[in-house]
Amino acid sequence: MTDATDSDNIEDNTAQAMRLAAPELLDLVHESIILTDADGAILFWNAASEEMYGWPRKSVLGRTVDALFGTQQYPADRQDAWQGEIWRDGADGEKRLIEVRCRSDRAPDGRMRFIETGRDVTSVREAEALLQKSEHRYRNLFQAMAASFWELDFFPVGEMLYRLRKTGAVNDYESYFAANPQFVREMMRATRVIDINEQTVRLFGRGERKELLGSVEPFWPQDSTGVFAASVIAAITGKPNYSAETRLRRIDGKEFDALFTACFPPDTMNKGTLLIGVIDMSEQVAARAAVAEMQNNLAHAARISMLGEFAASIAHEVNQPLAAIHANAAAGLRWLSRNEPNLPEAQVSMERVVEDANRASEIIGRIRTMAAGGTIKPTVLSLNAVIEETALFLRDELRKNEIQLFLDLSEYAPKIVADRVQVQQVFVNLSMNAIQALVGSDTTEPKLELLTRVAGDDSVLVTVRDNGPGFRPDDLPRLFDSFFTTRKEGMGLGLAITRSIVDGLGGTISTENRAEGGAEFRIHLPVFANG
Amino acid sequence: MPPGLNALNNKLIAIIDDDRSFRMALDGLLRSFGHATQTFTSAEAFLESGEADKPDCVVSDIQMPGLNGIDLKHRLDELGNTVPVIFVTAQTEKSTLAKARESGARCILRKPLEIDTLLECLKGALNA
């Protein structure tokens, strides 16, 4: 232990040592240190000061700081300690913002002196200002955007997932969420709304911002639970964002179609917050539905007008078995009502009645399928059979115009998967096109040919060709355009519809004029894999 | 049995129609009336059969591939064959029907047939 005298000695010694060592020590400090006397004349100027302001120590000793920096540096009424930020020009004339701490001190000789430490905070303040500006801009954007924005506290969900992982029972979140929708709802309840913009209040609320600031659970209809689950999975698997069209619910319970986007930037994820954007898609979805309906109606209208064109043909097809039924029935009656009824003949007549009635109902069935609107039912079809059916529709038209039909159907032609009526429509359209070209021409032996050929492992080729005048070369590139027609009475939809059907089947269609005269359509269709 | 039907018996009637089921039905019907019949799938087949001058009456479709019914009637006229021709058709087009009438056919009957009209017409044709 030391006594009081010893203690005084130690302090003295330390002060002595400090005095001796001070200049060297102070030169090692990163902050600027300036020592002045009571009038502000510089007594000491450390290496960091030289660095910070650009003046060597020798050139400043004895000058006052006010003179050096050109303005009064400290408030006149400063007390023993003062701190603040001061703009100072350096030797290079550049302005720097210095955070200054200053206090008075009494020198060993009893005179007042001041010691100042300084730190250049120019770039720090600039960065802060920039940050503030960008924060401000972000807030402005957040508020002003036409989209609904949400800032959510996701932290409790992170904890739920952490606890879930710790149980070790779950390694596949996707199937766990799918099997446990109530857990997903629980995650929704745990996700709190931190902030929303005005558009969110407009889109989801009733004017009261507060009633939206709870959990996000009320905004998710049951059927959309999977979308929320998928967004959580995207977040925990490190995806930068997630976007999906989904149904969301307003606070008043009304549901609407929305484009939901979640962003997971690493910095906000670490904070446990995330940003959600919601765009109201009701109008787009309605518009899309209207377009789809219009297309459907158009296809139906085209089908019906096609029916009109073939009404005579159909009447003929139905009339034929009807006439046979009638004659057979009359013959049957006659055989029975003879003086000696001829039962074997009567039986033959009756059998024919049944046969013809079957044929008639088959034809009716086919017409019904053709007239059935809208719904497209893909089935496995024999391409050759469909072409033979098409020929049936065309028979009357061909006969009337004295056009010979040649079917050359490959026995190896595979099956395809398609809607029967659509495929019929393709071949009817192309055939009618050919028939109309032949009717308007002076071809001496008008011919329509339909051919099927195997075209590789996964494709079948159907060729529809005629020996008419062919297309004008100028017209070739526009043939498949809607409303392009070379006929006065044509709508110009036939080939456009044909191509859209072929496209829909994953096939291709092309056309060219044949060297020997006439037009040729080539349709490649994908074959049924097990066909 | 209508009166006078027996008088028509045993007449030979040629039936020409490319539609198999109607051809067979008409064949059965005319035989049930007591007639002998012969069936042909086309006008050409009838003309080339070498028996075109045998039947007492021809019942033919109008619309057929190759020679149609009206062509057939003209050909028979050219050959000096005066066998009465009855057309049975599903055709409704006015110009075709007018041509059929102008060709000198005895009757033009619509499919499905009215049996009484057919009998009436046959009677007239066979008694001519």
Description:
The complex is a heterodimer of chains A (531) and B (128). Chain A has 531 residues and is an alpha+beta fold. Chain A has 17 helices and 17 strands. Chain A folds into 4 domains: 11-120, Beta-Lactamase, CATH 3.30.450; 144-280, Beta-Lactamase, CATH 3.30.450; 287-375, no CATH class; 377-531, Heat Shock Protein 90 (2-Layer Sandwich), CATH 3.30.565.10. Helix content of chain A is 47%, strand content 23%. The longest helix of chain A has 29 residues, at 343-371. Chain A is elongated, with a radius of gyration of 46 Å. Chain B is an alpha/beta fold. Mean pLDDT of chain B is 89; it is low at 1-8. At the A-B interface, helix 13 and helix 14 of A face helix 1 of B.
Features:
heterodimer; A: alpha+beta; Beta-Lactamase; 4 domains; 5-stranded antiparallel sheet; 17 helices; B: about 130 residues; alpha/beta; Rossmann fold; 5-stranded parallel sheet; 5 strands
Show the helix and strand layout:
The complex is a heterodimer of chains A (531) and B (128).
Chain A: H1 4-28, E1 32-37, E2 42-45, H2 47-53, H3 57-60, H4 65-69, E3 81-89, E4 95-106, E5 112-120, H5 122-144, E6 148-153, H6 155-166, H7 173-179, H8 181-190, E7 192-196, H9 198-204, H10 225-236, E8 241-249, E9 255-263, H11 266-271, E10 273-280, H12 282-309, H13 311-337, H14 343-371, E11 378-382, H15 383-400, E12 404-409, E13 415-419, H16 420-439, E14 447-454, E15 459-466, H17 494-504, E16 508-513, E17 519-526
Helix pairs in contact in A: 7-10, 8-10, 13-14, 13-15, 15-16, 16-17
Chain B: E1 12-16, H1 20-32, E2 36-40, H2 43-47, E3 57-60, H3 69-78, E4 85-89, H4 94-102, E5 107-110, H5 115-127
Parallel strand pairs in B: 1-2, 1-3, 3-4, 4-5
